Amino acid sequence: MATASSSGDSSRGQSGTVMITGASSGVGLYAAKALAARGWHVVMACRDVEKARAAARSLAIPDSSLTHLQVDLGDLDSVRRLVEAFHSTGLSLDALVCNAAVYKPRLKQPERSPQGYEISMATNHFGHFLLIHALLDDLKKSGHPSRRLVILGTVTANSKELGGKIPIPAPADLGDLSGFEAGFKAPISMASGKAFKPGKAYKDSKLCNMITTQELHRRLHDSTGIIFSSLYPGCVADTPLFRNTPKAFQTIFPWFQKTITGGYVSQELAGERVAQVVADSGFAVSGAHWSWGNRQKKNGQQFIQELSEKASDPDTAAKTWDLSKKLVGLA
Ligand code: NAP
What we know:
The protein has ten helices and eight strands. With 331 residues, it is α/β, with parallel strands linked by helices. Helix 1 (26-37) packs across helix 8 (267-279), helix 3 packs parallel to helix 4 (119-141) and helix 4 (119-141) runs parallel beside helix 6 (198-224). The protein binds NADP nicotinamide-adenine-dinucleotide phosphate. Residues 22, 24-28, 46-48, 51, 71-74, 99-102, 123, 152, 154, 206, 232-233, 235-237, 239-241 line the site of NADP nicotinamide-adenine-dinucleotide phosphate.
């Protein structure tokens, strides 16, 4: 396995082994490509391994840079099996990218995970929350000089930004977390315990992703040295994330982001941004939420985006952490 920087460019840091969830398409796939090009060995943790292999081949990512492992992040048992399978490879772990997500804004009724949880929260938050806890010791043991855990956040879950204030169907809001507290099983489908809104379920799960990053930083950065960060890579309006939106939306949304808001980012650039947050020395800031802005500028630089009170409040974060631990069977 490569350990030296492939580029000789010290800003690109030392390479190592990174696990990326949901690397079979979109941002995760292009992040795998960008990291493999930097000399990293990439563990593609994907729902459909054959799809992941074909996707990697389509971008000419060398087979020798990849290990393929299967996981359904919506199923906590499958996450446990992924961790076992990873341990049996004997690989070390120097970075973890929590990237996989589902967005199902047209569901009329909540879809449930095998454990009975609403599917967006189960996949995007609980699956990753369990995975992070199960792999923390691996990150602690790594001899890499800059071990990192990176979580994909989004603008629509950060009410400090315009995109996070959009009331359709409602801004991200975990309320008093009474839905989590009550066990989060049917008929409960939202963290707040309020009525099911599928688009908001996605935003709430991404809010949990950003809260998790902040809480990991508060609890574990000083004692472990691991760098915990999240990012908004830009609006990658043409990934399969939007496959469950109306067909007209899938045409209009990329056009709107390209020509009206200027927020559009290609999958390749979004993947490169993830790779930078994982590997480059300029991103070694724990607790940071990285952004390149909502209007993309040529050669625009990254900055640390302020998070909303909902994402940064330590009391909400501590409660979200404790309840999530219970719901994934860790407490
Ligand atoms: P995408 O192309 O749909 O990628 C999502 C990935 O997650 C796919 O590989 C998908 O696998 C995987 N996945 C879904 N459910 C899974 C499950 N149960 N178990 C394992 N893997 C599962 O979407 P994307 O746009 O690249 O999104 C990647 C990340 O970027 C997400 O966290 C998203 O919230 C974030 N993000 C995206 C945008 C954007 O504009 N697109 C903006 C901000 C943040 P399958 O191929 O099997 O479906």
